[in-house]
Amino acid sequence: MIFPRVFLRIVASFTALILASCETPTPQQTYQPQAGPFMLGIDVLASRGFDLIRGKRVGLITNQTSMTGRGERTRTVMQRALGPNLVALYAPEHGIDGTIGAGLHVSTRRDSVTGLTVHSLYGPTRKPTPAMLAPIDVLVFDLQDIGSRSYTYISTMIVAMEAAAECGKQFVVLDRPNPLGGWRVEGPPLESKWKSFVGQVPVPYVHGMTAGELAMMAGARGWMARTPRLNVVKMQGWSRSMVWQDTGLRWHQTSPNIPHATSPFYYVATGILGGATSVDIGIGTENPFGYAGGSGVNPQALYAYCQRLNTPGVSFSPYSKNGFGGVRLNISPRATADITALDVLLLAEINRLSGGKVISRMSGSKLNLFNKVYGSESLYSDLRRGVPATSIVSRWQSYNQSFRSQRQSFLLYP
Question: What are the residues whose beta carbons fall under 8 Å from the beta carbon of 19, sequence distance 6 or more?
Answer without folding.
Answer: 26, 29
